[in-house]
Amino acid sequence: MTTFQAWKTAARVHTLPAAVVPVVVGSALAQSDGVFRWDVFLYALLAALAIQVAANFANDVSDAHRGADTGERVGPPRMVALGRITARQMWAGVVAALVIAAGAGIALAVIAGPVILAIGGVSVIAMLGYVGGPFPYGYRGFGEVFVFLFFGVVATVGSRYIYDMAAPLPAWLLSIPIGLLAAAILVVNNFRDLDSDRLAGKRTLAVIIGPDKTRTLFVTLVYGAFFLIALFAVLRWTPFPTVFAALIAPYAMGPVRIIYRKSDGPALIRALKMTARLHLWTGLVIAAGVLI
């Protein structure tokens, strides 16, 4: 494995759409309202991706420090635990990503005011506290709540706010299914790692509630998201064409079948990637529906 491949693996490229989708949906709402700007969109996208990469780097090094990435783990390899990247180098990567995010955030603050800096600061603190600090809430069953809030509500509403300092109702409503699908990605990730996390003392929500309830939670999050998309559109609380995103729901059967029928690592990794793609395509269709 080359150095570039090691850093690419640590960045967990397959998770990055979770950062892109809220920005795209929030920006589509801005375009619909006639306030879209390309410079704002690009700054927001850069900041979101940088924070996501920083979170993935921090997760890699923090898990290695706490002994969570053991030989029993079935997911993708972690670079610090394998010795491909040193802990010091990984923390330097975290800092570099946060510097990029801060630069983009400052540019957005010039346009949209200091509230953006506050949102960014809280997001960074929450990201670093996921598996780090005195109370790593990712180890205490609160990871899904964090993802729902910061990759759903905060990211979507914030991505609309940056254009003209407005946060209309559709942004709040659409942030809910986006957040639910983002949380579903983490649920299937933690379901995959349930046994190794339990052995390592990492009490994710999947470890706390067990495999059967984790499966139920995954189904509830995924299909609950599509139900809300359809409901909000039919009630005309969101642009009606966003209802077409609910038509993607049948594709959720793929990862649902896997987590109910399979337990091997490769199958669950496939389910994780399928859920990430489901989230991405749903977000893109929502954005397209807003623009129609």
Describe this structure in words.
With 292 residues, this protein is an all-alpha fold. It has a single domain (19-24, 31-291), classed as Farnesyl Diphosphate Synthase, CATH 1.10.600. The protein is built from twelve helices and no strands. It starts with a helix and ends with a helix.
Question: What is the H-and-E element order?
Answer: HHHHHHHHHHHH
Calculate the terminal CA-CA distance, rounded to whole Å. 45 Å
> What is the name of the CATH class?
Mainly Alpha
**How much helix, percentage-wise, in residues?**
over 70%
What would CATH call the architecture?
Orthogonal Bundle
Indicate the radius of gyration in whole angstroms.
Answer: 19 Å
Low-pLDDT regions: none
- The strand count comes to 0
Tell me the CATH topology.
Farnesyl Diphosphate Synthase
| Structure annotation, total helices | 12
Give the overall shape, derived from the CA principal axes. globular
What about the largest sheet? none
Q: pLDDT average, as an integer?
A: 90
**How many structural domains?**
1
The secondary-structure class comes to: mainly alpha
% residues in beta strands? under 5%
